[in-house]
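Researcher: Good morning. I'm working through a list of sequences from a screen, and I'd like to move beyond sequence-only analysis. For each chain I'm collecting a predicted structure so we can compare shapes side by side. This is the next one on the list. No need for commentary yet; just the structure.
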Amino acid sequence: MSTPLAHFFGSRIFVINRAARTDRWAHVKAMMAQLGITNYRRFEAHEPVETFQGLPDGNHACVSSHRDLLAACAINDWPNMLVLEDDFSVLPTTGGLTTQGIFNRAAAELPPDWDMLYLGGGYGSDPQYRHSRHLVRINTMMTTSSYAVTGAFARRLSRHIHGHGPIDSLLHAHTPTAQSYCITPRLFAQWTSYSDLTNRETDYTPSMTDPRHEEMLVEGDWVGSAPPMGDLLFRGPLMRQELAGPHDMDGTEVIVGREGRFRITKVSLLDHPAPWRYGEIITYHLQRE
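Model: Good morning. Structure tokens for this chain:
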């Protein structure tokens, strides 16, 4: 039986792995067994051929490995591709949902013109907004251990991915203006193990599970379809610049704090008798969904 991840990406699930890192390939097999995925392929990572500060330049090899996968996606005209590094690790889930179940919901919320989707990572900067219940529109992310890309974006991106990197820093020039998202809650972190890039044991779990950036978005963000006038509501006091009046927010579904999903049932100006003006703060009454 096909899992949501396997169904969405088909045979286009690639894991970058160095030939010498048999320990990590054993880890990959364990993670894939846990996910119920069998249709994944090993992409042999490039070996360092240059040095940096007297050591093999692992970042240069890492960048070229990712570039070649992006180029393969473009050349073969694949609709999309999932790229995993051999230290990706499945995070525990809560609330009775599985990793596959969360991905299935997030995939259903992706807009048709999406470019890039992170399944895990650490936020490199404040995100832009919450697109939906399971998707955050990002600016930049740290680490590239689990991301998906469309064929169209791979074609635009691959020509820019070269040099010493690191790879996540190279992507920072493109993800803020592209249709780039991260799944929330994040599905994957990175296995704490010896890194060929840092030449020491590295643990990225704290940054890849830190909830602060996602919590910045939960107060007053739209959930579901946006209002007819367009964009999304940003964090902070409920505020809407494009609406004609506060009553236009009645019935809007929102997430408030960490308390869950609510629906606005009444909206009024905040002690301000003047007519509605762009950006005025409002008070609101909520009804739990």
